[in-house]
Design goal:
The structure holds 2 protein chains of 2 kinds.
Chain A (H helix, E strand, L loop, with lengths): L1 E5 L2 E3 L20 E3 L1 H17 L2 E7 L5 H10 L3 E5 L9 H12 L6 E5 L10 H9 L3 E12 L4 E7 L3 E8 L2 E5 L11 H9 L3 E3 L20 E7 L7 E3 L3 H14 L4
Parallel strand pairs in A: 1-4, 1-6, 4-5, 5-11, 6-10, 7-10
Antiparallel strand pairs in A: 2-3, 7-8, 8-9
Helix pairs in contact in A: 2-5, 3-4
Chain B lengths: L8 E4 L2 E2 L2 E2 L1 H17 L3 E7 L6 H6 L4 E6 L8 H15 L3 E5 L4 H12 L3 E5 L1 E7 L10 E11 L4 E6 L6 E5 L17 E3 L12 E7 L12 E5 L10 H10 L2 E4 L1 H5 L20 E5 L5 H7 L4 E6 L12 E4 L2 H19 L1
Parallel strand pairs in B: 1-4, 1-6, 4-5, 5-12, 6-11, 7-11, 14-15, 14-16, 16-17, 17-18
Antiparallel strand pairs in B: 2-3, 8-9, 9-10
Helix pairs in contact in B: 3-4, 5-8
Chain lengths: 263, 348
């Protein structure tokens, strides 16, 4: 079985937030980690490798330093790493990002593609489903458990989470899953794994290595959405503060909640 | 793309088990405001199997028109047939704006639809306005008017971004549930229904639903709760959390707590709000007997409305509270519970 896992290097939410003059995030100025949902997706792939035998390829798009997450993934047990990096790909929204990654994935063989549900910097949850659309694959978002993979009959059975229920879905392979961080507890890198990871080569692809993608769908210029304004969140100031007798206090709260359509 | 050909505000009227989700009415409410600014109408798109009977309820909350896509393939939500339904509706009716709820369904459906029709999608919006893009004139760049300006938190709520989609149509957004207001209900309103079925043919992208497992647990994840009644050390004892349980039951909320309460062994860890617990952003957060350490504030200050009750006038929780009440929680909370019960009963 061949599995491709898409991972993203993201700024750690505990670090400070820096912006470029054009309003996009200045990722180079922030601490970087492997996105948690993506790490769960990688762990799911590694468990399938343990159970069924598989070749796991990790793919990332980003600045050259994003190679770090590929090394980390290989130290956890992934077999190959592909870094997609090129100046012309910068400033991409989810449309242009998914076009880029789909262009890279067209060069690879896969039975299963796993992405994280969403990244902690953008929180959009869009890129996984968009990649699946560009590649013409079925998608199962919010995967909370992989029950079965059948390679002979080419299907996968996955639990798909909703707000108040889950569906057990059977999809044809190849298929794309988006993984929830709750899917599993990712394993740690091993010392031997780290050593091996740095001995392996990483494949680096630029714009010209992407297959069947128009320039008009890439980078900032290929992004349908544009940032009008971005700013640090302004901390909410204090509101009203009152000191009343208990009945007056209760009446005050009820009046405010009624005004706000809560009750 | 001829942008002028696209007219009207469309919203996806999500239903589950043939019950309209609350977000559908919220989107109609917001859609009406946007439509008014643009001098156009709001249309609800209702997708499912045997759902036509639900159309009037959408009219009662303000939908000028309801497009019904009714087909047995659409009984339960599945990505592919629902994507085909929405993408076909967009091709046929050409809306300038399309809003979808940022639910576990909408956050899968939205990206798939926008990828199919090639437009932009802004996720999890908390504010929508009609305005100019760029916001201010920029020399050498055309300033477009009557654009949808979509505002959303990003980066774990540390930043706020306003996004436009000036060159593609429809302008699409998913909208966080519980943020927009429903319009007042007009009893007996009848929907102007347009039935449309693009035809559904199975292909490799169709998945098979083998089983539907509904949650049986009665403990709500505090991160999903719309209303949290949160208690701190000031509640005094584990037994006294009873008054918070009663308040939560009266208002349809869930009880959560501060770290001090977990450390004291009064409540389990999965109810803890704060930096070492869970980050929550309910519509309403009651902070009862919680002083408001910075680590606690980090986990709840994104809540839409914060109500704090504390006897200490200088407690830092009052710095983030929308409504702060200085007083004795043991006296105020039971009274509040009774008055909320009365108000809820009166509104029925």
């Amino acid at each position: 079985m061949k599995i491709v896992v898409c991972v993203k290097q993201v700024p750690d939410t505990k670090g400070g937030v820096k912006f470029n003059p054009d309003g996009t995030l200045d990722r180079s100025a922030m601490l970087a980690i492997m996105n948690p949902d993506d790490k769960a997706g990688l762990e799911a792939a590694l468990r399938l490798k343990d159970q069924y035998g598989a070749e796991v390829t990790v793919v990332t798009m980003g600045l050259p330093k994003a190679e770090e997450v590929l090394r980390e993934a290989m130290a956890m047990g992934a077999d190959k790493g592909v870094l997609v990096t090129d100046r012309v790909l910068g400033g991409a929204d989810t449309w242009a990002t998914s076009q880029t990654i789909a262009g890279a994935l067209r060069n690879l063989e896969y039975d299963l593609i796993i992405t994280g549900r969403q990244a902690i910097d953008g929180d959009t949850a869009q890129v996984g489903p968009q990649i699946s659309e560009h590649l013409g694959l079925p998608v199962i978002s919010y995967a909370q458990n992989i029950r079965e993979v059948n390679l002979e009959e080419k299907y996968i059975v996955v639990e798909r989470q909703y707000d108040d229920r889950y569906h057990v879905l059977k999809a044809q392979l190849p298929c794309l899953l988006t993984a929830l961080a709750e899917l599993n507890e990712p394993r740690y890198m091993t010392p031997g794994g780290i050593f091996d990871a740095y001995a392996k080569d990483i494949t680096v692809w630029g714009r010209n290595d992407l297959k069947d993608v128009e320039d008009s769908n890439l980078g900032l210029k290929g992004s349908p959405t544009q940032i009008a304004k971005a700013s640090d969140k302004v901390r909410k100031g204090a509101g009203e503060k009152v000191t009343l007798d208990p009945a007056g206090s209760a009446d005050y709260i009820v009046a405010k909640l009624t005004e706000k359509h809560v009750i | 793309m001829n942008l002028e050909a696209y007219k009207g505000v469309f919203v996806f009227a999500q239903q589950v088990d043939n019950v309209i989700s609350g977000i559908a009415f919220e989107l109609i409410g917001k859609g009406k405001e946007l439509a008014k600014d643009l001098g156009t109408e709001v249309t609800a798109v209702l997708v499912g199997s045997d759902v036509k009977g639900l159309a009037d309820s959408l009219a009662e909350y303000g939908a000028d028109k309801v497009i019904v896509v009714d087909d047995p393939e659409l009984k339960e939500y599945r990505t592919e047939p629902y994507t085909h339904a929405l993408a076909s509706v967009i091709d046929e009716f050409k809306p300038e704006i399309f809003l979808i709820g940022a639910t576990a369904i909408g956050r899968d459906l939205g990206p798939r639809v926008c990828a199919r029709i090639h437009t932009g999608l802004t996720a999890d919006c908390t504010q929508l306005d009609i305005g100019d893009f760029p916001l201010n004139p920029v020399p050498g760049k055309e300033q477009k008017h009557n654009q949808l300006l979509m505002t959303r938190p990003a980066f774990g709520g540390n930043t706020i971004a306003t996004i436009a989609c000036p060159d593609f149509r429809p302008q699409m957004a998913t909208v966080r549930p519980g943020v927009m207001q429903k319009a007042p209900k007009v009893e007996g309103a009848k929907a102007n229904v347009v039935e449309y079925n693009p035809g559904f043919t199975k292909n490799n992208k169709y998945v098979e639903i083998m089983e539907v497992v509904k949650a049986v647990t009665d403990t709500v994840d505090i991160m999903d709760a719309k209303i949290l009644v949160s208690g701190g050390r000031g509640v005094g004892s584990p037994e006294n959390f009873k008054i918070l349980d009663d308040l939560a039951a009266a208002i349809g909320g869930t009880v959560s707590c501060s770290r001090a309460v977990v450390d004291a062994g009064w409540k389990p860890k999965d109810l803890q709000v704060g930096q070492t617990g869970k980050t929550v952003r309910p519509n309403v957060y009651f902070a009862i007997g919680i002083s408001g350490a910075i680590q606690h504030l980090a986990g709840m200050e994104e809540s839409d409305i914060i109500v704090a009750i504390n006897k200490d006038d200088t407690a830092p929780i009052f710095d983030v509270a929308d409504y702060g009440i200085v007083g004795d929680l043991n006296k105020i909370v039971p009274l509040l519970t009774e008055k909320i019960k009365e108000a809820v009963a009166a509104s029925k």
